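The material for today's practical consists of a large collection of protein records. Read left to right, the backbone structure tokens trace the chain's path through space. An example says more than a description, so a record of this kind follows:
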Amino acid sequence: MNKKTFNFEEFSNYLSAIEKNCNKVFIKSKDSKVCWRSWGKGKPLILLHGGYGSWAHWIKQAIPFSKNYNVLIPDMPGFGESEDLTLPHTPEKISANIAETLLKLISPEETPIICGFSFGGLIAGHLSYNLIERGLNPEKLILVGPGGLGAKRGEMRNMIARHSKMSEEEIYQAHKTNLEILMMHDATKVDDWSVHIQKQNTDAHRIKSRPISSTDTLARILEKQDVPLFLLWGEKDASVGVYLEDRMSILRDINSKVRFHVEYNLGHWIMYENDVIFNKILNNFIQD
């Protein structure tokens, strides 16, 4: 059996191929410096990554959606290549720093579409409200497996912690197992690229997102706005487990016009596990 280790050179070349046509900028904000990548022209489509994440959570969407939209993907403050965020780490502060820097990239007349994944879905709700307070009008808000609704978290196996005494092979296997536990339902979809992304993301994160995601902060901020709302989950999302209907009930009470889509037999990181299906769903939401 071959040992599984990281092929850093090959992965770096793969990332470079995706990034080569993007506009990559670092924009100073009140509490941080935010790294933004953008592709394409047209209506702004803002994609926010999940906890322990980076722009690479959207690696299979950046180029396809750039054919029709101005795709804007930040490393949120405290993640990836963006600078640390001053304490305390709150969704209000994270979203305010994203909004402040986003306004350097789009005009006040534009009506952006905001899409957030997992912890980024929670932040997307706050970003939408923050932009409204700054005089912008988001066209719609699309949330993919978001936290912050105050619902119970799905029961799952414990994740494997990494430590300095692990070999490279052990670290690889830990990340692979963690992706199988939390992020993807079909273990065969956990490939070398996803393991590389997971390692890179977790090595770079500096904000503990889970304590924020366990609150009802998204539910509370959605009550303050009336942006068209769309929700997407994978049916086998481990973070949701058997509590999907609880989430739907919370959202129906907030917005009676909310639209739901649950995709059969897919997990949490749905846009990586099956990008063909996800991209079609996202496009349908955008066109709706």
In short: The mean pLDDT is 96. The beta strands are 23-28, 33-39, 44-48, 70-75, 113-117, 140-144, 229-234, 259-263. The first strand starts at residue 23 and ends at 28.
